[in-house]
């Protein structure tokens, strides 16, 4: 049995965007792979038809649709002339068609807009969602002379950023000031565009009617700052009219879809548990939401892993039922909802369902089950594996088993896990690393986590848990508004005590701790409240809720909601929950990992905390990754992911293995 190596993630296949053909007899999906040579990700389309086979090899095919049972349509930029147009600032989306039986992809048509989603309506028309900037929204309608003038202005504008909206930037998208998402109908035959939504409306959550004659969506219209509670709209695709079905400002709309002859809405009022409140199931009738089924659980998967790339559908309607992925306890499961409001389990194995699709007479999923990397499964029995894309990646490698610990703190039962080190000998003493998840409304589960398995192979015990504030246990469990650094911190310290008692082979003098995002907040909090850890690695963290309010893409609403205080009226409340307040108490050697394009937990948070520690004589190292964002650990450039994990591992080795 060989050790798992830090760079082994370069051999993993990441499965996403699972979709079935119209007759449900075949599946297609995207497989992504990290490529160290290009320092990017190769993305190609695969088909499952009796067996799994690769369909495209352009390495840039991240999305597609089935046009019929035998052809796929995908967006790609293959021609050098097309690449030059976009490099010069033009908006352009080029579509290719390929037979699922093989052969070369053929250029089908192009659209002078940045298309983010699309559906085929008939032989000529496509429903498209496009991203555009209000300053340049009319570029496609200009003549050549006018277009060149606007392109010249656009190029000059790249030297500055003008901000007059909130949020003015967004993690992973960069500066988004004046950016909107708009629906249109596109005719291939005459290259005409029919806009379905107005200029300042920002569209999301599209759901096409099975008869392809109308589309549901949620949207907000704004000039300065969008309402967090979107409205619901329906557009008629025949007469190109739009109707408001439910106004903005009433509910946080998580999803809207056609449910046979009814309209199903997943929405939260945010009045009981704030922004993290889980959605209820409603039917939209005559402008009102009528409760169909009460729901306390998260819709979608909150199970963390650093072995995914890309997303996919998490729900659909089939035979009178709405099938959806939901996070329950420490895993994501498949449940169904019928028209009477009955919610029933369909597939409840431990693991993570990452996207689902109808397939033959059942349901398929890209999933992480039995502690394995992603594969395609039929969701039947314990899961019938249909692919073997990752079988070779872990063959002969040490993968530590998940040893579950359930313990009680403050009258609440809590779950955690321990991974034993490679070549474990109970008569030896070992260092250990506590890993804290982000969110806080996410969960750890029994799914493959590359960084944890690497540390186990490097001779560490690794332990991790789901403290209060996490997902999967209902609204009340997740609600730690105004309690950051209190009950959640107590849960983590109690878990550490329990692990040390249960595993005497762990040396309590050689404990390390790390975490990202909320886990980074907690890392910063820990060093100001205890000296029990020999080393800490704080990643993409929060240090100062006051500054976070004005610099994070979600700051204006998230800090007020989660800290239960307003910057101008409750400054002391926000400061009390800020790790920076306690930085003068820190003694633990601390590594900070941050990215300069992280707009969720901005780099100013890392700067403040690192500076404070250095001012107080604490061994400190800050590593800034240029051109990366909040997703560095799971979707960053491969070479930067390697450097990040090397930095953390080396820091732990320096302070937790020094006395071996």
UniProtKB/TrEMBL annotation:
Keyword line: Hydrolase, Protease
Gene3D superfamilies per the UniProt record, alphabetical: alpha/beta hydrolase
Domain annotation Peptidase S9 prolyl oligopeptidase catalytic: ranges: 448-657
InterPro entries on file: AB_hydrolase_fold, Peptidase_S9_cat
SUPFAM superfamilies: alpha/beta-Hydrolases (SSF53474), DPP6 N-terminal domain-like (SSF82171)
GO molecular function: serine-type endopeptidase activity
UniProt-listed GO biological process terms: proteolysis
Family the entry assigns: Belongs to the peptidase S9C family.
Name the UniProt record assigns to this protein: S9 family peptidase
Source taxonomy: Bacteria, Bacillati, Bacillota, Erysipelotrichia, Erysipelotrichales
């Amino acid at each position: 049995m060989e050790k798992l190596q830090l760079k082994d993630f370069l051999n993993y296949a990441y499965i996403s965007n699972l979709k079935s053909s119209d007759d449900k007899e075949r599946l297609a999906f995207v497989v992504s792979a990290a490529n160290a040579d290009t320092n990017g990700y190769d993305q190609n389309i695969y088909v499952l038809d009796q067996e799994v086979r690769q369909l495209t090899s352009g390495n840039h095919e991240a999305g597609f649709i089935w046009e019929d049972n035998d052809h796929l349509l995908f967006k790609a930029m293959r021609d050098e002339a097309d690449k030059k147009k976009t490099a010069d600032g033009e908006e352009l989306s080029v579509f290719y068609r390929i037979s699922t039986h093989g052969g070369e992809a053929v250029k089908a048509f192009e659209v002078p807009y940045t298309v983010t989603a699309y559906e085929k309506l008939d032989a000529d028309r496509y429903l498209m969602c496009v991203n555009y900037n209000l300053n340049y929204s009319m570029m496609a309608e200009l003549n050549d002379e006018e277009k060149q003038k606007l392109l010249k202005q656009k190029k000059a504008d790249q030297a500055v950023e003008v901000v007059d909206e909130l949020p003015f930037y967004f993690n992973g998208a960069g500066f988004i000031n004046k950016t909107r998402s708009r629906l249109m109908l596109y005719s291939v035959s005459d290259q005409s565009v029919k806009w379905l939504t107005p200029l300042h409306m920002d569209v999301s959550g599209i759901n096409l009617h099975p008869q392809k004659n109308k589309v549901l969506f949620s949207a907000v219209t704004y000039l300065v700052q969008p309402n967090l509670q979107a409205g619901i709209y329906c557009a008629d695709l025949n007469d190109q009219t739009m109707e408001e079905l439910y106004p903005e400002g009433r509910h946080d709309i998580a999803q809207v879809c056609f449910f046979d002859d009814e309209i199903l809405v997943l929405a939260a009022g945010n009045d009981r548990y704030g922004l993290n409140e889980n959605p209820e199931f409603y039917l939209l009738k005559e402008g009102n939401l009528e409760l169909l089924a009460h729901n306390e659980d998260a819709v979608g998967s909150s199970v963390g892993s650093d072995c995914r790339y890309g997303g996919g559908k998490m729900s659909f309607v089939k035979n009178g039922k709405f099938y959806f992925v939901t996070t329950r306890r420490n895993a994501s499961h498949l449940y169904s909802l019928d028209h009477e409001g009955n919610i029933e389990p369909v597939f409840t194995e431990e693991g993570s369902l990452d996207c689902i699709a109808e397939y033959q007479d059942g349901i398929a999923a890209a999933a992480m089950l039995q502690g394995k990397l992603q594969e395609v499964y039929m969701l039947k029995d314990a899961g019938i594996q249909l692919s073997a894309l990752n079988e070779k990646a872990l063959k002969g490698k040490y993968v530590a088993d998940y040893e579950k610990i359930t313990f009680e703190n403050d009258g609440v039962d809590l779950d955690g896990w321990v991974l034993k080190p490679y070549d474990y000998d109970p008569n030896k003493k070992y260092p250990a690393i506590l890993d804290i998840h982000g969110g806080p409304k996410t969960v750890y589960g029994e799914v493959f986590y590359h960084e944890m398995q690497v540390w186990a192979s490097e001779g560490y015990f690794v332990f991790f848990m789901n403290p209060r504030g996490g997902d999967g246990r209902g609204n009340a469990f997740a609600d730690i508004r105004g309690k950051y650094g209190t009950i959640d911190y107590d849960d983590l310290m109690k878990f550490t005590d329990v692990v040390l008692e249960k595993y005497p082979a762990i040396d309590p003098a050689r404990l390390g701790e790390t975490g990202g995002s909320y886990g980074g907040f907690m890392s910063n909090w820990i060093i100001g409240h205890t000296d029990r850890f020999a080393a800490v690695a704080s990643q993409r963290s929060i240090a100062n809720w006051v500054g976070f309010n004005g610099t994070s893409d979600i700051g204006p609403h998230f800090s007020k909601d989660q800290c239960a205080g307003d910057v101008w009226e409750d400054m002391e409340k926000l400061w009390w929950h800020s790790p920076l307040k306690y930085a003068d108490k820190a003694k633990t050697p601390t590594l900070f990992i941050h990215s300069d394009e992280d707009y969720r937990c901005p780099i100013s948070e890392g700067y403040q905390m690192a500076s404070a520690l250095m001012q107080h004589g604490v061994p400190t190292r800050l590593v800034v990754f240029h051109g990366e964002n909040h997703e560095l650990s799971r979707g960053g450039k491969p070479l930067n992911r390697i450097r990040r994990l090397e930095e953390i591992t080396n820091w732990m080795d320096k302070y937790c293995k020094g006395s071996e």
